[in-house]
Amino acid sequence: MTTNVSSESLAAPVLTRVQVALALALLLGLQPVTTDLYLPALPQLTRALGASMGAAQQTMAALLLVFGVGQLFWGPVADRVGRRPVLMLGLLLYTAAAVAGALAPSVQWLIGWRALQGLGLAAAVVCARALLRDLYEPHDGARVMAWGMSGLGLIAIASPTLGGAVAALAGWRAALALVACIGAAALAYVTWWVPETARRLRPDATRPAVLLSAWRRIATHPVFVGWALLTTCTYGGLFTILAGSSFVYIDVLGVSPALYGMLLGTGSAAYIAGTFICRRWVHRYGAVGAVQRGAWFTLAGGLAMVLPAALGLQSAWAIAVPTALYALGHGVHQPCSQAAAVGPFPDQAGAASALAGFLLASVAFGIGAWLGYALDGTVRPLAYGFGFWALLTCVAAWTLVRRLQPARRT
After folding, report:
1. pTM
2. Which of 333, 323, 332 is nearest to 383 (CA)?
3. Is 198 helix (H, G, I), strand (E, B) or coil?
4. Any idea what the CATH number is for the domain that residue 170 is in?
5. How far apart are CA 351 and CA 355, in angstroms?
6. What is the CA angle 207-211-215, rounded to 5?
7. Is residue 410 part of a domain?
8. Is the pLDDT of residue 144 over 80?
């Protein structure tokens, strides 16, 4: 089937690697801002609104559900009208929903506003990955993505620490209000500094027949399947920690919200270290070789958390240290897999990014829903779920990704 691509190519944007990396950090960094920053306030929010643990988990689950489905909507739209209009609208929606969430009178209203916030977040994340593919081939894109994810790691470090401090000083509403301020800052940066990056627009990108054909081609492409499953599995382990650790650290182990934020920040610091390792390994071994080596960190982290839990040992460090090991591997896996998954689709980067994001968010939604029922006052559900995703990540890195191409230096 032939595709209808705009006959008028857009001018190539003038952006330095530093500007691109900063844009990636800000846009992708909205994910940890949206989740990590309010995690220390989650038990406080639950008590203040008289909500159950399951209802509190739904504030995360609803966001993730709409975040996943929203990417399927925004990706084709970004291929049709360009990245910049979608970014502007999405960030405006994100910021407005965050303000409304901070004012929510009940947990039901908060769930609704968080869902709308997920729709805005979807636009930011889809366009961030798409603009990277607009500007770079996958090998160079992995290096630039690693720089961007180093910035994301700094945001991830600051988010729980800042969220815990703000929640302790001014309550959970102030923590959510801070999320709105960060969304507004991202909108200002895009408005002033991020030009359109799509080289060609696709007027037929949102036509159902064309869209279904594109998704079928993308979803069956072996490169997409291997890398998208890797990024989904490695995020599954990370999200298990994000969604469940606040209740385990604070309610089970008696850790204060401020200390919890600091412990979560150690994982983010390890993640930054992983992105630096990623840049070196991609240059030396290629993306495939890098993720195969990074999987050893992943395996070590999974085993280090599962074994103490199986023996009945409950300690904050028995969660924090394995999380840091896993985060080292995650810092290698994510830049490589996110850049490579959309690599074969330069003219449909939005659709490919959306499909990868939908898969990731769907798994995260399932994890959040499962944790709402599985958490039982011990560390075991968290540890076993974490170990499960660590194992799947290693399988994906050592089998599916390994078969795509030999590791090579370019």
Report:
1. 0.79
2. 323
3. coil
4. 1.20.1250.20
5. 6
6. 175
7. no
8. yes
